[in-house]
Amino acid sequence: MKRILITGGAGFIGANFVHYLIEHSDAEITVLDALTYAGNKESLRGIPAARLHLVVGDITDAPLVGQLVAAADAVVHFAAESHNDNSLFDPRPFLDTNVVGTYTLLEAVRRHDTRFHHISTDEVYGDLALDDPARFTESTPYNPSSPYSSTKAASDLLVRAWVRSFGVRATISNCSNNYGPYQHVEKFIPRQITNILHGVRPKLYGAGANVRDWIHVEDHSSAVWEILRRGTVGRTYLVGADGEKSNREVLGLILGLMGQDPGAFDTVADRAGHDLRYGIDATVLREELGWSPAHRDLSAGLARTIDWYRRNPWWWEGSKAGTEDRYLQQAAAQGAEGHGTGKIGDGA
Length: 348
Ligand code: NAD
Ligand code: TDX
What we know:
The protein has 348 residues and is of the alpha/beta class. It has a domain at 3-178 and 216-239: 3-Layer(aba) Sandwich (Rossmann fold). Helix content is 43%, strand content 15%. The chain is built from eleven helices and 13 strands. Strands 3-2-1-4-5-6-11 form a seven-stranded parallel sheet, sandwiched between helices. The protein is globular and about 55 Å long. Nicotinamide-adenine-dinucleotide (NAD) binds at residues 7-8, 10-14, 33-36, 38-39, 58-60, 78-82, 97, 101, 119, 121, 152, 175, 177-178, 184. The site of thymidine-5'-diphospho-beta-D-xylose has 16 residues, from helix 6 and strand 8.
């Protein structure tokens, strides 16, 4: 598996995966990335040109995708519209990229019989109650809540169908919330870190009781690399590092690490349809592939992440003001349109 095509390799997790492969393999990497607002080629700075070729293009462009897949031994598919809040205000790009883009890649890997790994999310399973001892497993039924997670669920189902119907050699991983360097400032952790660096109070949705299961992005990369090399074709693997914390707890850690008063934040209107809790049981990945996370201390990982944003304002300053403007527009639109509530079948 020498020549690897990585879609979305200029995004947060894709770029971290490229850096991981440069360090841990001798792969020759081609990145296909449309460089949307979320893509930044500076995230790939410093990688030797002999190891990396960046193609700026769209995963829905079938001729381009066909040409790149023909030259690859394997494809790792990270490209997506990834932000829940955006999906609530303009779902269309989520359908185009997450559904049609994945379909376009599947048709190409089917034609060329190329090994394919699809990156997905725990959000396809919907949410868990805060006091439920259960966690998601590979057999949890799909029950996505947002336009984002429903398009990710759709893409997973396409991959499963292409495996079953056409014998495509694919695996899927559904991972929990990632944190680490190169994450866009729209996301929870970098948004709060960069707000504090700008002297602005962090913004917590609702009461901050919602729980996310945090994993360092480097641990996600090591899991994907194991699955790509040693995973069983046709299988789904859940990726998580036992990192459940409420948003309020995570914000408390950030405030403490940055020398702020514990109450120095604002609560703002809750996200419509906001999933309560995600929690991953990664037993299959641990037992079948012997994978385990290297980063087990969230506070230490956050301290390094804070340090990275402090040292690299050149990387994020350019997108900060536009992101905060977008949040203001979304808040105004939410005020005008009102909130979503339950799901069909919830009795809500
Ligand atoms: P991101 O938004 O940071 O990056 C997405 C990348 O895809 C960007 O570089 C963007 O330019 C590119 N892209 C978007 N549309 C494209 C198109 N049509 N053609 C080509 N490139 C396009 O996202 P991320 O957080 O790095 O997430 C990567 C993947 O991991 C996604 O599939 C996401 O669903 C999944 N995931 C993310 C998390 C998380 O915590 N961020 C957790 C689990 C799974
Ligand atoms: O300003 C904020 N305040 C806040 O309280 C933001 C941006 C978020 N939040 C909350 C919402 C969530 O409960 O923090 C939590 C995390 O929010 P996001 O960073 O937007 O992540 P989430 O919606 O959980 O989804 C992420 O993890 C799963 C990724 O964006 C997805 O791509 C991935 O599939």
